[in-house]
Amino acid sequence: MACDINDCAVFVYALFGISAGNHRLWSHNAFKAKLPLQIILIIASSLTFQYSVLNWVRDHRLHHRYTDTDPHNAARGVFFSHIGWLLVKKHPEVKRREKFTDLRDVKANPVLRFQKKWAVPFIGSICFIIPTLIPVYFWNESLNVAWHLSFLRYVASLHQTFLVNSYAHFVGTRPYDKRILPTNNRSINVVVLGEGFHNFHHAFPWDYRSAELGTLFFNPTTWFIELFAKIGWAYDLKTASKAVIEGRAQRTGDGTRVQNKSVS
Q1: Are 199 and 189 in contact (CB under 8 A)?
Q2: Cα 110 to Cα 115: distance, rounded to the nearest angstrom
Q3: pTM for this structure?
Q4: How far apart are CA 160 and CA 175, in angstroms?
């Protein structure tokens, strides 16, 4: 039982590594983080074993620059955008365009360079070895149960991330930009800890809240960032102004944004 509870806690912690770390901090520079918070986030990110943050940022920036024609192209269907893109070789055009993706800021980050240099032993240990050995050593869990729960957490965290690439591009509304596939979907938002307002995010990728409603709706990742902002470890939190948001919705939205709310 203790192993189950702790693995769930590790699972949630790992998701913050992706949503707050890989995504909002390092991919979009939506806020800045001091070294202690970066260390917390790099460990959390490594728990998901989505290879190095540098690779993750490269693919995600490419995803935004070429929305709907990117590495996990949603125009090729739900399965491809969810996991199929990882089962085939990258399209030559994707490889070509990767070379033009600006990564100078993340490549200059010593925390990310360390993770990249020691990717396999560091990420492998954080994701599998340590989470397996801790319950075995401290509360006499069997190695078999501890290992399989760690692997289950890993697989679940992968699919949690993949849902943003797939489900959040097909089901929902497009209050800010009806010309692109990303949608706002409140149901998936709960699963992905506040990353479900994907149409808003693609319209305003620099906004640390990743949603117009910010903390007024279920957005644990935003709460996480704001918690560390209170102690000074997160700072320079960027937001899109109300006027800019309203203007964009009026120009390109599908009409579902009502009184500062996105109907999903």
Answers
A1: no
A2: 9
A3: 0.90
A4: 23
169 with 198: CB under 8 angstroms?
yes
Q: Average pLDDT of each block of 10 consecutive residues along the chain (264 residues)? A: 62 90 97 98 94 93 83 86 86 78 94 95 94 90 90 91 90 93 89 91 95 77 96 97 93 81 45
The H-assigned helical ranges of 17-118 are 35-46, 53-65, 78-82, 92-98, 104-107, 110-117
Beta strands in the chain (DSSP E): 32-33, 234-235, 257-258, 261-262
Cα–Cα dist 124/48, whole Å: 10
Please list the alpha-helical segments (H only) found in 181-231.
Answer: 186-191, 198-203, 220-230
Q: What is the pLDDT of residue 262?
A: 45
Quote the tokens at residue 112. 């990310």
Distance CA 210, CA 200 (A): 7
* Total number of domains in the chain: 1
What pLDDT is attached to residue 200? 95
DSSP character for 92?
H
> Which ranges in 66-123 belong to alpha helices (H)?
78-82, 92-98, 104-107, 110-117
Question: Using CA atoms, how far apart are residues 17 and 193, in angstroms rounded to an integer?
Answer: 11
Range of the domain at 71: 2-262
In the DSSP assignment, the letter for residue 126 is I
- Give the whole-angstrom CA distance, residue 163 versus residue 192: 8
